Amino acid sequence: MSDVAPSLAGWMARQRWYATKGRTPQIRVIGSFEADLDGVLAVTLLVIDEAPDLPVLYQVPVVARRSPLPGGDHAFIGSADDLYLYDAPHDPAYARYLFGLMAGSVHVDGSDVVVDGTELVPAGTVRRSRVLSGEQSNTSIIFDVEGGPVEHAIAKVFRVLHHGDNPDVTTQAALTQGGSTRVPTTFGSLHGNWPDPGRDHGTASGHLAFSQQFLAGAEDAWRVALDAAGEHRDFTTEARDLGVAVAEVHATLAEQLGTVESDDDTVAAALVSMRRRITTAAREVPEIAEHEAAVLAVYDRAAALRWPRLQRIHGDLHLGQALQAPGRGWTLLDFEGEPLRPMPERSRADVPLRDIAGMLRSFDYVAGSLAQQVPSVDAAAWAHDARVAFVDGYVASSGVDVRAERALLDAFEIDKAVYEAIYESRNRPDWIDIPIAAVRRLVARSGAAPAVAPGSTTASPEDD
Questions:
Q1: What are the pLDDT digits (tens) for 369-385?
Q2: Is 434 a member of any domain?
Q3: CB within 8 Å of 28: residues ≥ 6 apart
Q4: What separation, in Å, do the N-terminal and C-terminal C-alpha atoms of the chain show?
Q5: List of residues 6+ apart from 431 with CB closer than 8 A
Q6: 450 domain residue, yes or no
Q7: Contacts of 249 (CB under 8 A, 6+ apart)
Q8: More confident call, 450 vs 410
Q9: 251: domain range?
Q10: In this structure, are 227 and 203 located in the same domain?
């Protein structure tokens, strides 16, 4: 293929994973690697889009066929050099090739790109593949496999690339190596190096893809919890088990990747970020501005506390990041961390309380979202019981009495609610009452503000 860029730009702008909506991509290919798959040319392009203020690097795998791909109209990109170009994950030939790259120590020298595959656990051979619908920032390929430990696998192709190892890969690989059954088994990964003149050595590196077990028939915890709350079904057993699962994941990560002391610089850096967030929220959300001084007082008290040891955590934990899989209980997934943080920061050791705070906020959101959808349903008591049970399960499994660290846990939960307030004000103003009520409740519990206003849809100050 002599030049596919003209065909790519318009197509990229229509993809869900294209990050700069409303812009026309201004793309430049900085590197590629390719393979001849029995007459089907597979070319993986690394493409810089210079349309946004900060350029974005994309991975765009393309297959070129001399005749149309049967059933591939939805993946058609365009034509070049009398070849039909398709989005490669939808082509079974490319899918098998990608799976093979991650199924062994495969080294590929491409054009300005060096690629290495690493196998962690043998996965078997591919029988068929299909692309999972609904993906946004990445593209996932589902495989039916044979001769391996499971019948189904999934490969995640990272579309937006960043310098630095992806914690979704490294964290889950560490959990697999540690024997954890609380994450899908990681099979392998694909790592690349590409030119980056902005870096000291002129190159950048990061993960391009990884493969793991696919849990067929699993339900995400958000949907399970929302259904239970809407039907007034007790959820305390499930919530407690989820607390156990999170504690087990934290324990395995500590064993595999170690822990470090939380020194003054680490604490100061965390609080700078939290204070910056409340300043932004107070500027954008008047209801949050009323509590700014109280929130800052909570943070000041947190600064004087002794923080627990730091370790690798999930980093963006909520009910949507857990699956209830048949025969195996709760499973956690998507360890990429907060999407807005730079990739190197997402792998830094952090406080496990941050994950606990994220899950507590998620139970709160179940009650709040139900109140939005069905005003006659009051799930505040349901959320209270779920929060208590979740913490009970975590404490029982970990042996760490997180309730004794209530002041610090509240600071992390307030920070999460402040983040939610900014998000809701910008995207779903009708939902703004959910995080505002949480901030009001949490600062009241801390003694920094008046008690929770009557009629709040969130749990009481004495919960969890």
A1: 999 888 888 999 999 99
A2: yes
A3: 5, 47, 48, 50
A4: 60
A5: 368, 369, 372, 424
A6: no
A7: 175, 180, 182, 183, 314, 332
A8: 410
A9: 219-445
A10: no
